[in-house]
Specification:
Oligomer: single chain
CATH class of the largest domain: Alpha Beta
Order of helices and strands: EHEHEEHEEEHEHEHEHEHEHEHEHEEHEH
Distance between the termini: 64 Å
Number of strands: 17
Shape: globular
CATH topology of the largest domain: Methyltransferase, Cobalt-precorrin-4 Transmethylase, Domain 2
CATH architecture of the largest domain: 2-Layer Sandwich
Helix content: 25-40%
Structural class: alpha/beta
Number of domains: 4
Length: 409
């Protein structure tokens, strides 16, 4: 006969707690994690504890949680469907568990699973799909399996063929910001969209690893724009997005960084909207912040800078097409981040110095950010042009001007 602590005795069920009273005794980190999951399930949560963590207190303020700022007393579980004993006092947890046992309320005791009538699984959600894993008494094992399943559902290696709500609607377009290049830095929604696509139009700066996981029937179109080199015209990209969507395909436009940060994403949105194609935008981690961060350079730092500016350097100062007020940027004291500005760096650095920026201001150039080939070169604003030549720096690269560069040295 199985013992009460034998994992084989667990009967996995899904509790429908929406609109039902749940009592959590305790106000620490464990209680916070339990409350977060219960709120996600729609439960009416009451917390009994003299003190709360700041995160729990933030849930109380808007009324999401009812708080009794006192110690537990017998009778607190009256009317509860479910209870959690999560204090740091074993005697209190035992009293809560005993009351729950008498009232036939299932109770999860955080400090002693052997006396709990409920063992909380490692839970993950993707849309309306809920994954719960019991690890045979090993919480880390359960978490590892849960994360692996969710990752598989996200990248498409585990197919949810019966999903009622596909990750991309038929005959629509999703503009996905792929982040700075590392597939691990793509948002969860971005991965879901790519995994559910019939057609993917991808830039060369998009995370190429995502494309490798796609099944062979997915059409992958190279929409790269190489610096000063071969490029698919924007009009052609717009036409392809509309054409494939009109054929009833699930279309994803996979771009590097964020679609709306020098990515022409809004032009693509306008083209689809004008053609009556539904469009979703999935923001991405822009390389303007991510690449310096990966090199150990914060774009802001308390007491050092109160502003940072992101500039496109694809045309130099003085060019008829330039929309940048270089004189204003030269007067700034904060951080300047330049994208697409390797070839124009000599002209840009000269303009910044001309308009007031100290020639000895630290500069960092980070090339091939978020890839195994990433490297950083440090110099000054005055020495930038020569450094790029000496180090053979080529695009893609992000360069940063400002005192914050010294922090990452």
């Amino acid at each position: 006969m199985s013992s009460p602590t034998d994992p084989a005795t667990v009967y996995p069920v899904g509790l429908r707690l929406a609109g039902r009273r749940v009592v959590v005794v305790g106000g620490g980190q464990v209680a916070h994690r339990r409350v977060a999951g219960l709120l996600e399930a729609g439960a009416l949560v009451t917390v009994v504890s003299p003190e709360l963590t700041p995160a729990l207190e933030a849930l109380v303020a808007p009324g999401s949680v009812t708080w009794h700022p006192r110690r537990y007393v017998a009778g607190d579980l009256a009317g509860a469907w479910y209870a959690v004993a999560a204090t740091d006092a074993p005697a209190v947890n035992a009293a809560v568990a005993a009351e729950a046992e008498r009232d036939r309320v299932f109770c999860a005791r955080a400090d002693d699973r052997s006396t709990s009538t409920v063992w909380t699984p490692a839970v993950g959600r993707q849309g309306d799909l809920v994954v719960g894993v019991h690890g045979g008494g090993d919480p880390q094992r359960a978490v590892g399996v849960r994360d692996a399943v969710l990752a598989g559902l996200t990248d498409g290696s585990i197919a949810d063929r019966a999903a009622r709500a596909p990750s991309v609607a038929v005959g629509s377009v999703v503009l996905v910001g792929g982040g700075p290049g590392d597939p691990g830095l793509v948002t969860v929604r971005g991965r879901q969209a790519v995994a559910g696509a019939d057609v993917v139009l991808a830039d060369h700066l998009a995370p190429q690893g995502l494309l490798a996981s796609l099944p062979p029937e997915v059409e992958v179109i190279d929409a790269s724009k190489l610096p000063r080199g071969r490029a698919m015209a924007q009009e052609q990209i717009n036409t392809l997005l509309v054409d494939r969507a009109r054929r009833g395909k699930r279309v994803v436009r996979l771009k590097g960084g964020d679609p709306f940060v020098f990515g022409r994403g809004y032009e693509e949105l306008e083209a689809c909207t004008a053609a009556g194609i539904p469009v979703e935008v999935v923001p991405g981690v822009t390389s303007a912040i991510a690449v310096p961060g990966l090199a150990g350079i914060p774009v802001t730092h308390r007491g050092m800078t109160h502003e940072f500016v992101v500039v496109s350097g694809h045309v130099p100062p003085g060019h008829p097409s330039s929309l940048v007020d270089w004189a204003a940027l030269g007067r700034l004291r904060g951080t300047v981040v330049v994208l697409m500005g390797v070839d124009t760096a000599p002209a840009i650095s000269a303009a910044l110095i001309e308009h007031g920026r100290d020639p000895q201001t630290p500069v960092a150039v980070v090339s091939d950010g978020a890839t195994p080939a990433q490297r950083s070169v440090r110099t000054t604003l005055a020495g930038l042009a020569q450094t790029l030549v000496d180090e053979g720096v080529r695009p893609p690269a992000v360069w940063v001007v400002g005192d914050v560069v010294a922090l990452g040295a």
